[in-house]
Each structure stands twice: as C-alpha cells, then as structure tokens.
User: Fold this.
Amino acid sequence: MKKVCVVGLGYIGLPTSAIFAKAGIEVVGVDVSERVINLLNKGEIHIEEVGLPELIKEVVADGRLKGSVTPEKADAFIIAVPTPIHEDNSANVDYVISATKAILPYLEKGNVVIVESTIPPRTMDDVVAPIIKEHGLDPYKDVYLAHCPERVLPGRILIELIENTRIIGGVTPEASSKAAEVYRTVVTGDILETEAVTAEMSKLMENTFRDVNIALANELVKISAKLGVNAHDVIELANRHPRVNLHQPGPGVGGHCLAVDPYFIVEKAVEESPLIQTARTINNSMPEFVVEQVSRLTCELEAPKLAVFGLTYKGNIDDVRESPALDIAQMLVDDQRFNVSVYDPHVRDEQVPFTLDSFEDAVNGAHLVVILADHNEFKELDLKKLKAHMKTPVVFDTKNCSPLGEEVLTYRIGDLTNLKAIQE
Assistant:
C-alpha cells in the first residue's frame, strides 16, 4: 500500500492521517472546511490532542501528508466523518453518505474502503454498499469494504490508535483480510477480523456498557442524596468486592460516543432495549440534578455569583461535543437568579454560545465554584487563592477531582449529606 485517502479531519481522521504518514505512507487528508485544510497544509491543527501538533508539523514538512477539499485516487480510503443524531435521537448518517459519494469518482477495482465512523447496525450493507453498487462497482467483489470502528481515548489518541486492539468487519471475509492489511502497517495491537454487522454492534455495545454502568452510579447519587449517604464511600467499598466495578458518577455523559451510540441500537430495536433507554434517561437527567443542587446551595443569596469551571465532557481536552457541562452552564446562564462567569482553559470562545472569562475574573467575588470537568488545572487548584478571591469560598465538585482543604468548603456530587445553603 502506497497511498491512503482519509475523509474527515476531526478528532479521529486527523490523528489517523498522521500515524499513516509517520509510517511512510503518502496520505491525503480531505475535509469540507477550507480553514482546516489551510491550517493542515501549514503544519498546524484545529483541535487539541497530546503530541499531535508536533507530529502533524513533522509529516507535513516531510511531504507525507497534505490536505485537500477533494479526494484523490488511493489504494485505501478511510472515512472518518461524524455521525450525529437527529432530534428524535435516530442516527444521522448523511456525512457518511456524502463521504462515500465523494470518493466514488476516484474509486477503482481492488481499492479498500474503510468506514471508521460509528454507525448503526447494518449501515455497511444497507447504506454504504448500495451507494458503491449504484456507481457501477460490485461492493462484494470489485472493492474491499469494511467497518473498523475507532476505540480511542482523547488525550491518548496517538498511542491508542497504534496499540489498541482493532476490530475489522468486512462485508466479505476477503474485505476483512484486505482491510486488516491496511491497519497492520501502523497497528501493533491485535487485529480481529469479523463481519461488518458484528463490528458495528461491538463498537456500540462497548460504549453502551459504559453508559449503562455510569447511569447506575448516577442513580446511586440520587438515592444517596435522598437517604443521606455518601455515594463515593459506597462505591469505594463496593468495589472492594472482586467481581464489582461500579463506575464513577458525574454531571452526565458526553462526547460523541457514550452519549450517542446507545441510540443507534435503540433505533433498530426499540422494544428490545428498555434498559439502554432507561440508562440514557438517567444520564440525561443529571444536568438538571446539578442545577437543582446549585440552587439549594445558593437559595439564601440574592443574585449569587457562580464561577463555572469546565465545559468539556472530559478532562484535558477541548471537545465539547454532547457535553453535559455545556448544558449545565447554559442552564445557569439562562437562569436570571444567577450571575455566571465561565472559565475553561482548554476551550475557545468560538466553540461555545457565551463569553468565557479568565480564572481571576471568574472567581473574583464568586459565592460558589461549580466544577464540571476534571482538567488538571482543577485537580491542582490553589485553595488559598480561591479563598482570597471568593466572597464565600465554597466549591461544588461534580467530578470528584478537586483538592480538599480547610480553606474551602467542598461538596461532592455524591456526598450531599451535609448540604446547607450558603450565607453571606
């Protein structure tokens, strides 16, 4: 394999392009955004990911990676575009359809076509394959069509793209084998070959498993708040059992995977998936629960100032997709009772619908800090500095990450046993 064309240069497509280029393969990265392409061709990037700026700069300078708004002929095509959800929570595969149609003029017999985008079951057979067939190529004989879902953790993407086990689901056994050969040029982890629909379901169930378990922890938080129990202590003690591994609670579930993938299963089997649907309902209810606790904490204050810390769905990244923190911040900003300042050292103003403040501006005169993301900056908060700048040094930590100390009164999302209203 000499050349790869990657369609979609987001959080997966751009790192994927970089690692193939690093392996000595010619790569053309395709995106509809001219801004993304212009940045790439200057050796710069539009997202935040550990190690990626340096790698992109290297492979672009060496001529192994270039950006383009249109695809080019290649030995393998990798589609890594978003699959958002519609308002009714059904999958929106329009980007996958558009990307597949975009490569058709450049597709030749013997090419490998891989969809990395997370997709509902049977999308490869029922959606992607017919598009290729309509173009005049047999998707089961002329090209090698496969689904290879990404399975990486933001902040470790460059490591996990190489080291993690990859699942390769071909529409034929030959397609699985050919697609596996593509990944063996860069992947050191195990490569498991299967059929397309099994690969599609495997990725969805990986994230659904986590979503359901987080829902259990979040339901425990609500039960504990009612019963006066410390949920964090309960989880720590329960997890001492050798066959128990409760997840950690939080302000909800975000990101393009956990908050979305379960719906792809539900839309294909509504009556058969009540547990998955209930888990989604529980996790989606957590932003409202957080806002209720903020209201309880500040109910005796008039126009309390809130310093909202963090908008991303997880720590040390800039990704706000499906972030419950963003929803909570918006709910607080929209509530006329509060004076809200929002601070996130990893997020840019153009990513969010309100103005971001500096750390100092956010905490000055604040009655309550609400931590919604577990950035390192919040794990290492200077409590003396908080106390010096806040009007009432109180923290509500929904991620159970901030330091504890006498300088600040801290409430955890799972430990509201002694919650009292803040008084000036």
Summary: The longest strand covers residues 3-7. The two ends are 68 Å apart (CA to CA). The first helix runs from residue 13 to 22. Residues 3-202 form a domain with the Rossmann fold fold (CATH 3.40.50.720).
